[in-house]
Amino acid sequence: MTNDRPLLGITMGDPAGVGSEVIVKAYPEVVSFADVVVIGDADVVREAVGICGVDLDVRAVDDVAAVEPSADAITVLDLDNVADLEYGALREEYGEASLEYVARAIELATSGDVDAIVTAPINKQATRMAGSEYAGHTGMLADYTDTENYSMMLIEGDLRVTHVSTHVPLREACDLVTTERVLSTIEVTDEALRSLGIDDPTLAVAGLNPHASDGGLLGDEDDAEIRPAVRAARDRGLDVHGPESPDTVYVQAAAGRYDCVVSMYHDQGHIPVKMLGFRGDGAVSGVNVTIGLPIVRTSVDHGTAFDIAGEGVASAVSMVDACRVAASATATRE
Length: 334
What we know:
Blueprint: E1 7-11, H1 19-30, E2 35-40, H2 42-52, E3 57-61, E4 73-78, H3 92-111, E5 116-119, H4 124-129, H5 137-144, E6 151-156, E7 159-163, H6 170-175, H7 179-195, E8 202-206, H8 221-235, E9 239-244, H9 249-254, E10 260-263, H10 266-277, E11 287-291, E12 297-300, H11 317-332
Parallel strand pairs: 1-2, 1-5, 2-4, 3-4, 5-12, 7-10, 8-9, 8-10
Antiparallel strand pairs: 6-7, 6-11, 11-12
């Protein structure tokens, strides 16, 4: 902590994407409630400052101990690993650079040198070109912190969702709906909600099949795998309901009936959140939180947006939201 304010380590993401732009655009608001060090390339951040027309100096450091909070200057832990910058380009070296930012951030968070990690988007194709086998940040974070029980939570306003599985083919996702995995996700979700300041969370568990199998007419997975997990969670004192029909439960949760919906697979949880968070005016809100980790990690809920990178038009709303959630989560861990 610096002067009782959390120090957020914000990774720059893929250099060719909008990560640096949303960081510098968000900075004037974020610095009002947290201190910031960007983990990335100082030259790329300087380029973003110019493109976005933000009145900021860029201060490059090689140690987070040198961070001096300022509303007028953004500090970059400069890994100096981008030789030349081409916005929107899919390159192995950009994928490798973005992985280096994440690895350094994890080191800093686990050692306590930063209080939380906030990640700008990486490009999965670029990281694969660089030799990474991870489908995104989440698996890397779990492996680097030796975490077995974790999940992805998306937050958009009053709607929160977690996932039994994420970046796997749909056929495989159905096979991953087991009592053990559903129960584990329920438990880590309940714990995460409490860490976010919700003392007695109420959870809904979405069914896998339409209408949660409709009493067995549309499949047996809901009764065979999901219902026993819900029953076991309730036996452990958790306020859990389900399996609920997936075509209505997200509307109920967004209206405040549930604090979170445990979703069975990626799109089941992502679609309702992004319907709410992707606005017609181009602004994007919503936050991605990796729950179950020994460190705090949040992220924007959008991708690298190669098609608009370098134009200075990317929305910083999601980055501000991600920083707010990270700062709030650090407060509950004190």
